[in-house]
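PROTEIN DESIGN WORKSHEET
SECTION A - STRUCTURE
LENGTH: 298
TOKENS:
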């Protein structure tokens, strides 16, 4: 993604406080390449002190932002009493924010839903945001759906609860001094542009994975960059040294290639490209030459 856009803020997957504080290998969870900046570390947990400790560790690792995940609806996360279920406990989330803010100098942000079943009114959302704003949160990223905590899978929670963009727009009017980013179901630059007339930023989740080349216009459209964007073929070619590095370090080329399957999304030959990679990347002899071979056929 960083070869496609130099300026878009990237987020890690959620890392739990337990994995960092009780795990044997922090490097596995926290290491990243310097080329990935700017990048935010997304943390999951329900203990203010543990989150504060992990936020400091993340800052020391060089992350540009600490993001608290209060939006994940999975059963595994709920069993640990964190993620979206914490929207029922705004005072606790406010304490989490305040402790993290006291530990780090980089921004502390919160990603959350517009509600959860049982606390899904705008007034509930307004109360939640007012408390974390008072705690000093630097920015909120709002997934414009409620999370249904029982009976839906995480995948279903990304699609079945209806989008309520107007609630996020209303938040911006009510909390005009707070930076508010909208998330959920956004797939095109036309949609991004429309949202940016109402809020401060847009987070792209699933579409960034399914169609990463959507970001090829991000730098010119939103960051006023005059640099020429790389072609898909240039992205693949420039990725070869990194693939070689991963092979030397971890020995699994599919760790990288599985994330490239959407590179030709919507383009002629996209299916053939995906098949080319999937047929080869799990072979024991697979190496960066898979990319070279594909490029030789273009």
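SECTION B - SEQUENCE
RESIDUE ASSIGNMENT:
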């Amino acid at each position: 993604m960083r070869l496609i856009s130099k300026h878009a803020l990237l987020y890690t997957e959620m890392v739990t406080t337990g994995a960092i504080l009780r795990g044997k290998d922090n490097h596995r969870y926290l290491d990243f390449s310097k080329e990935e900046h700017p990048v935010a570390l997304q943390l999951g947990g329900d203990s203010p002190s543990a989150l504060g400790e992990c936020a400091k560790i993340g800052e020391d690792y060089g992350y540009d932002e600490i993001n608290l995940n209060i939006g994940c609806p999975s059963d595994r996360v709920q069993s640990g009493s964190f993620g979206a279920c914490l929207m029922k406990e705004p005072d606790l989330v406010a304490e989490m924010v305040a402790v993290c803010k006291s530990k780090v100098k980089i921004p502390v942000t919160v990603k959350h839903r517009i509600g959860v079943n049982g606390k899904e009114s705008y007034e509930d959302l307004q109360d939640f945001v007012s408390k974390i704003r008072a705690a000093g949160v630097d920015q909120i990223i709002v997934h414009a759906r409620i999370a249904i905590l029982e009976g839906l899978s995480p995948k279903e929670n990304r699609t079945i609860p209806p989008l309520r963009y107007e609630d996020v727009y209303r938040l911006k009017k009510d909390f005009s001094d707070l930076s508010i980013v909208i998330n959920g179901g956004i797939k095109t630059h036309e949609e991004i542009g429309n949202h940016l007339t109402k809020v401060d930023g847009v987070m792209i989740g699933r579409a960034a994975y399914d169609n990463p080349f959507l970001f090829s216009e991000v730098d010119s459209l939103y960051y006023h960059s005059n640099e020429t964007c790389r072609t898909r073929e240039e992205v693949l070619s420039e990725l070869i040294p990194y693939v070689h590095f991963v092979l030397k370090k971890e020995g699994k080329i599919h760790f990288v290639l599985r994330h490239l399957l959407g590179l030709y999304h919507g383009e002629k030959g996209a299916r053939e490209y995906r098949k080319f990679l999937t047929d080869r990347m799990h072979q024991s002899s697979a190496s960066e030459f898979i990319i070279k071979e594909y490029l030789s056929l273009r």
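SECTION C - NOTES
The radius of gyration is 20 Å.
The longest strand covers residues 108-116.
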